Each structure stands twice: as C-alpha cells, then as structure tokens.
Task: inverse folding
RNA sequence: GGAGGGUUGGCCGAGCGGACGAAGGCAGCGGUCUUGAAAACCGCCGGGCGCCUCGCGCGUCCCGUGGGUUCGAAUCCCACACCCUCCGCCA
C-alpha cells in the first residue's frame, strides 16, 4: 500500500511515478476522490459522535426525574451515528480496495521498460568452456540424483525427487548459504509456511497474485510462495525501538507456486517447479537506509554465487517487471550451458514501506510522528536453480561434476556423480 | 478430538453499566536534593485517524478480534482468534 498522504500532498509527482508502472491519470483521480470522501466522512462522524457523547454524559450527571426526558432526546443521536457509521464503512472499504491494487512507487533509479528489458549492471565469474554441455536433467538423472517420472506419478507435473547426491547437494548448499548470511549478521529462521490471508495481504501477494497461490481447503490458510511472507510478518503490528534496527534474518523453507499462466514454459527439469526450497534474506531497516541495505543484500547474493564459481550477470529489473510491492529489484541470472541462456537464480527487492504499512511495522521516533520501517528481501540461494547452475557449469565431459572448493567442506567430497 | 481457565497500556495488575484512555506498582524520561551516585520527593510517561486559528492544540476511535444490547459498554450478550491446564492422539 502506498501512502495516501503522498497522493494528497504531491499528486503530480505521485501520478508521474505511478505512470511509469502503468497506472493512469484517471485511476489517480479516482483515488484522490476516495481519499477526500473518506476524510470528509470521518470528520462528519467524529462530530456526530461528539454530540452523542455529550448527550449521554449529561444523562449520567442528571437526577432521576430529569432522566427519562433526556434519554428520549438522546435517541436521535444514536440513529444519526449509526447511519453515518454505515456510510463511513462503505467509503473506507472502497478506499482500501482501490489503494490495495496500486503498486509501490518505483525507485527513481529503477530503469524504465518491460519484462526482459532489464539493464545488465555487471557480470562475474568465468563462463565455462564446454564442448557438448549436458543439461541438468541429463546429468542428475544419469547419477540417479533426480527422479522426475516417479514424482509425476505421485504429485503431477512440475514436481521432483532429489535423491542420493542430489539430496546431499541441497543440504550442503543450504548450510553453506546460511553460513554466508550469518557472517553478515542475519539470524537463521525456520518460518511457518502456511499463513493466514492477512500475512499474504500484508506482503502484497494478495489481492494481486492470488492465482499463484496454493490455498488449503478446510483451514483458510495459504502455502507461502516464499519465506519472505512469514519473515515480513515476523514483526507485524510492532512498534520497534530505533536501536533494535536493522533486524536481519535468513529463512530456510519450502516454497509453493501454482505457476498458473506458465503452461508450456520451462517444462523440463527442476527450473520451474511447484515446490522448491529457498534460503531467503530479509531485513527491516530505518527508512533512510533501505537503498544501502539493498546493495548490501545484493552483495551477499553475489558472494554466495561468486564463491560457488558460477558465472552470472546482475540485472537491474525495469519498472514494468516489478512485483506489486517492490520499488526496485535486482536479479542475478546465472549462465545455464544446457539452455545457452542466462536464467534468474536470485532476486532481491526493496519494498520500502509498502509491506510495513499493511503489516503495521513501525519504529519509534523521539520527535515527531513514528515511522514505518522499510523492508527488503533477497534470495540467498534457491536450491533447485542453484543446483542447475552448479552442475551445468561445473560438469565435465564424463558426466561428473567438480565441486567448488567453497562447497567441499559442506558436501564432504570434491567430485559429484563419480 | 474432549473438558476447563484466561486475554486490560513496555511489564505486573485493579476495574464487573455512567465522571475510565482506564487505579496502583515496576520500568523509562525530566527535575529537586547530592562533590558524584543511590535513596527520597515532585512532574511527565500508549497508539491510530481526522481537523486546524499548525498549538508541544481540538475531536474521535482503540481494554484479544468482529458483531449485538443500551441514551451510555473494559464492564452485559453472541461468534471467532490466540494463550494456559488436564485427557486423548502424535513426529
């Protein structure tokens, strides 16, 4: 949710910023009208309530003989307040619904453009030289580290079994990534992965991404698509002391995505599956510090992949491809020899106060009004995609995979699939 | 799954239809005292929204959440959530 006051105080600049994300002027005007009506209704209702309270208090002070007449006279206030409350509720609901669908204001430095038009900021690592690269499915299945056929029988398309060294690879990568994050001050967390609607709404996945979410039938809970959701919710409805900030976490959890609308896309292997595991970075920071924190999180991501000796590029995502809650986003795209393409392996977003406004996570300010904190999230390591990049880039002609030295202590071996 | 108890401000804890945003205590902040500190004493000490003559003002809402009764609800009624105890089940 954006700040309604911004629209009130500086409508032109706000409209211009939102126009970059495709929100048109008519929608802006509609929001302004709803905001004005809402405030008018609140003022009217407050006034009516003040009158009613005054009348009621007079009854309390009055003697027994005067009361019946006063009570009768007070009846009218009750009806008027009730009518105004009803109208206020309607206006507030309209206001909420309209604002909930407005995406976050883009960061001034975020580039214009649509999906696929991002700016490559830099590349790192050395591109592998491979004569006849196999893709991850060939490599992993040959080593019995991946079983897609049986997963399809048990769970359907876009599910997988990681077995043997495939399963060990996950344990090693996760622990490795968590260690890197912890070195940078992030506290490890295993969060709940079933959450209430409120948490989904608060993080901006509802109402805009509903078709991406798995929902439980009997309990009105959602399976999270990322641990960003429960991590963001960790401090909902809290007023934090400034000296508690920044709060930095690293979560490990499975992630569930319906991938509706992605039919026929990335159907091979484990690049795009309904269930995967991810190590996620999350920070709550003072609003002045979110841009710096964003760079910090991106640096951790680069460290994770850099030390795995994976060649990749950092992309500044254009405003047309941002999620609803993000003001700016950087992806790391690793080179996948099996596809001869750079594909997204991490993503980090600065969601400024968009999530904290809905989740009501604030910080105390000595002088002046308390502030909403800024929240940021980033992928330390998405297990399945990291496995793909790792085995495809470090494969050797005999189908074995060289383990980068940073991972060897975690895996307990120098070569996989031997 | 069954039975019972609970949810009040940063914390503890009173209040059980009218003067209650809520006693009292603790913590915190400011002051008096003191060479300094402690103690003692005095004062301050929640949040949201709205208004504006933008004043360290005014109004309104918030005692788990949402409804209801009433001129008036922290207090009465209903539903839900969460926590605790016991039984059952269970990694």
Result:
């Amino acid at each position: 949710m954006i700040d309604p006051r911004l629209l009130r105080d500086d409508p032109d600049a706000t409209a211009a910023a939102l126009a970059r994300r495709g929100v048109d002027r008519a929608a802006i005007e509609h929001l302004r009208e709803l905001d004005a009506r809402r405030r008018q209704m609140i003022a009217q209702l407050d006034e009516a309530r003040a009158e009613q309270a005054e009348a009621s208090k007079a009854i309390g002070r009055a003697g027994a003989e005067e009361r019946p007449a006063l009570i009768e006279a007070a009846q009218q206030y009750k009806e008027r307040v009730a009518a105004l409350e009803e109208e206020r509720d309607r206006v507030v609901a309209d206001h909420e619904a309209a604002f909930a669908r407005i995406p976050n204001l883009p960061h001034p430095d975020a580039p214009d453009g649509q999906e696929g038009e991002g700016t490559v900021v830099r590349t790192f690592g050395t591109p592998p030289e491979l004569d006849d690269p196999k893709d991850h499915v060939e490599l992993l299945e040959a080593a019995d580290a991946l079983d897609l056929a049986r997963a399809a029988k048990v769970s359907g398309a876009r599910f997988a079994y990681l077995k043997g060294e495939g399963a060990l690879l996950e344990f090693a990568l996760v622990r490795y990534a968590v260690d890197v994050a912890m070195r940078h001050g992030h506290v490890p967390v295993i969060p709940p992965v079933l959450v209430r609607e409120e948490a989904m709404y608060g993080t901006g996945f509802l109402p805009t991404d509903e078709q991406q979410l798995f929902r439980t039938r009997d309990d009105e809970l959602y399976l999270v698509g990322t641990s960003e959701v429960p991590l963001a919710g960790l401090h909902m409805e809290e007023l934090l002391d400034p000296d508690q900030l920044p709060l930095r976490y690293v979560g490990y959890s499975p992630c569930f995505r319906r991938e509706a609308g992605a039919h026929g896309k990335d159907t091979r292997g484990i690049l795009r599956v309904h269930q995967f595991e991810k190590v996620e970075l999350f920070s709550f920071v003072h609003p002045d510090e979110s841009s710096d924190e964003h760079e910090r999180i991106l640096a951790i991501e680069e460290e994770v992949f850099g030390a795995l000796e994976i060649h990749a590029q950092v992309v500044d995502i254009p405003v047309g491809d941002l999620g609803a809650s993000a003001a700016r986003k950087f992806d790391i795209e690793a080179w996948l020899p099996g596809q001869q393409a750079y594909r997204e392996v991490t993503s980090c977003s600065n969601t400024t106060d968009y999530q904290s406004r809905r989740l009501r996570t604030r910080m105390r300010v000595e002088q002046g009004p308390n502030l909403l904190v800024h929240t940021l999230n980033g992928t330390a390591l998405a297990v399945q995609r990291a496995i793909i990049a790792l085995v495809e880039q470090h494969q050797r002609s005999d189908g074995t995979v060289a383990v980068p030295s940073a991972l060897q202590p975690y895996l307990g071996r120098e070569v996989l699939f031997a």
